Amino acid sequence: MITKRIIPCLDVRDGRVVKGVNFGGLQDVSSPVELAKFYSDNGADELVFYDITASSDGRKLFTEILTETAANVFIPLTVGGGINTVEDFDRVLKCGADKVSVNSGAIRNPELIREAARLYGDQCVVLSVDIKRVDGVFRVFAKGGRENTGMEAIEWIRRCVGMGAGEIVVNSIDTDGVKGGFDLEMLEAVCRVADVPVIASGGAGKIGDFITLFNTLPKVDAGLAASIFHFGEVKIPDLKAQMAKANIPTRL
Fold first, then answer.
1. How many whole angstroms from its chain centre is CA 35?
2. Catalytic residues
3. 5-245 CATH pick, 3.30.110.30, 3.40.525.10, 3.20.20.70, 3.40.30.10
4. In the predicted model, is pLDDT for residue 208 greater than 90?
5. Does residue 205 contact residue 228 with C-beta atoms inside 8 Å?
C-alpha cells in the first residue's frame, strides 16, 4: 500500500514564512531556508513552498530564496506562486524544484497545464485550488483567495486532470488556519472526480485530524499543514508514530 505523505507548507512573503487564518491576518514565522532544512531533517515527506503574493502583485516568484531553500532540502519540493507560463515552470525547476504548483496562472490560461505536462510530464504539474463555499457551492478563488472566479470547483478539477495535472492540492479557505479538522466533505467530492494524487490542505489542528482524514478518505494521498508544524503544536515524528499505530501506512 502507498504510504501517506506528511507535507509542511511554507507560505513565503517578502522572503519570510508567514501564516494566517482563512488566508488573512498574516504573521511572521521564520526564514524559509532554516524552516525547510528543519523539516527535511525531521521526517517531512515533501515540502511545499508558495510565494503567496507573487500572483496578486503581478510579479515573478523570488528565485534567490528558492534556490537557497532547494539546496538545503533532500526531499521533494513543490513550488508555486506567480506561475503563468512554461518559462516560469522552467525557471523554477532550474532553481531546484521537483514539481511546480499552478493556480491563478491556470485559471487565466488553462492550456498552460496541457503545455507544461507535455514538456515536463504530468508528475511535474501540480494544480493548487483555493476553494470556498459560496451559497452552498464549492467555488474556485484566485489571487491568494481574494477573488471569486465564479467557477465551480469540482468541475474545474476534473477538467484540469483531463489536461494533464498530475496532482491536486485542495486548499479549503473555509477551514484554513481554523484548526478544526480537514474539510472532509470537500475532499470527498474531489476524490470522486480525480484519479491522481489528492493532497488535503486547510484545517489540521492536531494529530487526530490526520488520522481521521486518512481513515475516512483512504483515497487522499497526503496531508498538508503549516501553523501546527511551524509553532511546534504537532511534531512530525510524533504524528507519524501515531499514524503507524493506527495502521495508516507511513514512512517512519
1. 16
2. 11, 130
3. 3.20.20.70
4. yes
5. yes
